[in-house]
Design goal:
The chain is 42% helix and 18% strand. By secondary structure, it is α/β, with parallel strands linked by helices. The protein has two domains: 177 residues, Rossmann fold; 136 residues, Response regulator (Rossmann fold), CATH 3.40.50. The strands form two sheets. The protein has a six-stranded parallel β-sheet, with helices on both faces. A six-stranded mixed β-sheet has the order 7-6-8-9-10-12, sandwiched between helices. The N terminus is likely disordered. The protein binds beta-D-galactofuranose.
Length: 336
């Protein structure tokens, strides 16, 4: 399948070749008025300075996403990466973005911990002529000129795929579902909930009896699941918005003397190694992947813009889905 990402890469390669040609003629390849390249930007010589504000280190997915970005935006690849961890606090991300603006970086990229509250700081970046790239999560700003592109998965689709599998495979009889939501106000939490509801609303057998945030962490997923087990004696399915909360739910279910994957089915999203291992062991029943390896695409996007090219406003990364057999087959070669 030729993903949009592949198309971006092909376009970047073409534009980069053109830029090299122009450079050979003594031009910096600055391109036309559509160029978003901010000249200079710090004391990094020919390196492209990029300020990246990461959500935090809350999950296995986030660790893989951070590694992909740090392994790709290296000096050898032409980048000077300034990286910050916001510990899942929006105020820390806003502070980091303002710091990057003050440093005069060439580009700012970030994964917004929540959808709202970004217009002011993104307007400051725009006034400073620093292009912004959204990775992983979206913002709800009406003004799409505040950022160059949003690259990440389609979270509504992920929730729908989970809901369709639950409806088709478990919803043949009445089932009580408890939902471990991601971080309140975050795009993945909002959209994964919506997608699941859209996919299951036509099946009267599927009933969501409780829904609460576990903030995408294993510990909080376990705590919330312990509460659910206390409050609801007849839980059939756990819908976890990410593997880490699903793994926390496994701990709670086992502590309650029940068998995860059998007494209580679990479905989740991400496809990180620990989640896929639990799936291959039958403790989780189905996983929809959310590809965290966004580093190469981010590098392609920046190089395309730096060479005077333009990129699509929305780049959707490809996600696969796994049952137990598929997880067992995929594990030996998984990159994360
Ligand atoms: C999704 C990403 C989510 C993951 C979680 O793209 O933002 O945040 O699903 C992570 O594991 O914490």
């Amino acid at each position: 399948m030729v993903s949009r990402t592949f198309r971006t890469r092909a376009m970047a390669a073409t534009v980069a070749a053109l830029a090299l040609g122009l450079a050979a003629c003594g031009s910096s390849g600055s391109g036309d008025s559509s160029t978003d390249a901010a000249s200079g930007g710090g004391d990094s010589g020919d390196l492209i300075t990029v300020g990246f504000s990461q959500v935090g280190a809350e999950s296995g997915w986030r660790a893989a996403n951070t590694k992909s970005i740090q392994d790709t935006l290296t000096k050898d690849n032409g980048f000077d990466l300034k990286f910050s961890d916001a510990q899942q606090k929006q105020e820390n991300q806003i502070q980091a973005i303002r710091s990057y603006i003050a440093q005069g970086v060439d580009y700012i990229a970030f994964s917004p911990v929540v959808e709202s509250g970004w217009d002011a700081v993104l307007e400051e970046a725009k006034q400073a002529n620093i292009p912004v790239i959204l990775t992983d999560r979206a913002v709800d700003s009406e003004d799409t000129s505040l950022y160059k592109t949003f690259i990440g998965s389609d979270f509504v689709e992920e929730g729908k795929r989970i809901g369709e599998w639950v409806s088709d495979n478990l919803g043949t009889e009445p089932i009580n579902v408890v939902e471990l939501q991601g971080t309140t106000g975050s795009a993945p939490a909002i959209d994964r909930k919506q997608g699941f509801e859209d996919a299951t609303k036509g099946n009267p057998n599927v009933k969501i009896i409780a829904s609460q945030t576990g903030n995408f962490t294993r510990a909080e997923g376990k705590t919330v699941m312990e509460g659910f087990l206390q409050a609801y004696p007849d839980i059939d399915v756990v819908y976890a918005h990410n593997d880490d909360m699903g793994l926390g739910a496994i701990e709670a279910i086992e502590a309650a003397g029940k068998v995860p994957g059998k007494d209580i089915k679990i479905v989740s999203i991400d496809g990180v190694k620990d989640g896929m291992t639990a799936l291959s062991e039958g403790k989780i029943n189905y996983i929809v992947e959310c590809n965290p390896l966004l580093g190469p695409d981010l590098a392609d996007i920046i190089k395309t813009l730096q060479s005077g090219g333009t990129v699509e406003p929305r780049i959707v990364t490809h996600d696969d889905a796994f049952d137990q057999a598929a997880a067992t087959a995929a594990l030996p070669t998984r990159q994360y």
